[in-house]
Write a structure and sequence with these properties.
Layout (H helix, E strand, L loop, with lengths): L2 H18 L3 H6 L3 H11 L3 H9 L8 E5 L9 H6 L3 E7 L2 H13 L5 E5 L12 E7 L8 H11 E12 L5 H14 L9 H12 L3 E6 L2 E7 L11
Parallel strand pairs: 1-2, 1-4, 2-3, 4-5
Antiparallel strand pairs: 5-7, 6-7
């Protein structure tokens, strides 16, 4: 994807976010009756339950550096991060609108150990093997360059580090697939291609080996992977 295409995509996505920002958190959390109908009818899932299951993969007493990409508005993670007092957390998102709301939530809820940055998951501005954990909740369906995103996350994750999260997979619910194609892609929220659940599982295992756990929840793949330790060479022994 060239620079012009990236700028056009960013403008399109930014305009979409600006139009719906007032209702974004309500939509995700099901706080309104219409958002509960939307989540049940289109996706047949409880996003609050899904978020809890993903976040439970990271212990509250986690110590180390954690990258959350995309951090979004931090609507699901703020309470968790407030409990993770010994962690150093970096939240990165391509959307300046999302970062602005997350920053307000960070200040309101006094999450001192969370820093927020605007950036591209396909070109992460971090050194190799610097994070002990990478969290990605509902991000990959929005990433236009998914191969680069997977590779970059693998690059910045330490050997033995945990990569966990969830993302949309195609082929599990016809109505959801149709909604993605006719609405979410046209609005600029989702970007193809998408994996099936089997393809997603195969992809993760090809990168992380046998230490991969996956679970299918309607049209979502929930996952936890551990990056293999590097093999020690004779010169390192």
């Amino acid at each position: 994807m060239n620079i012009l295409d990236k700028k056009m995509m960013a403008n399109r996505q930014s305009n979409s976010y600006q139009r719906m920002m007032e209702h974004y958190d309500d939509l995700l959390t099901g706080r309104k009756w219409w958002s509960r109908i939307y989540m049940r009818f289109i996706w047949n899932e409880d996003t609050n339950l899904l978020a809890r299951k993903v976040l439970d993969l990271i212990p509250d007493d986690f110590r180390g550096r954690l990258l959350d990409v995309p951090v979004g508005t931090a609507i699901f993670t703020a309470e968790k991060y407030r409990r993770m007092k010994d962690a150093e957390i970096v939240g990165l998102d391509y959307s300046e609108e999302m970062i602005a709301i997350a920053a307000l939530r960070k200040e309101t809820e006094e999450i001192a150990n969370l820093s927020l940055e605007q950036g591209d998951v396909g070109e992460l501005p971090y050194a190799n093997e610097i994070f002990d954990c990478v969290l990605s909740m509902n991000g990959f369906q929005a990433f236009p360059e998914k191969e680069k995103a997977f590779a970059e996350i693998f690059r910045v994750l330490k050997p033995g580090g945990c990569f966990c999260g969830c993302f949309y997979v195609k082929g599990e619910r016809r109505l959801a697939d149709l909604f993605v194609k006719k609405v979410m892609e046209r609005k600029g929220f989702f970007h193809p291609p998408y994996d099936t659940f089997a393809e997603a599982e195969s992809r993760l295992r090809s990168m992380y080996g046998d230490d991969v756990l996956t679970e299918k929840m309607a049209s979502v793949c929930l996952f936890r992977c551990v990056k293999p330790q590097r093999e020690t060479t004779e010169n390192e022994q």
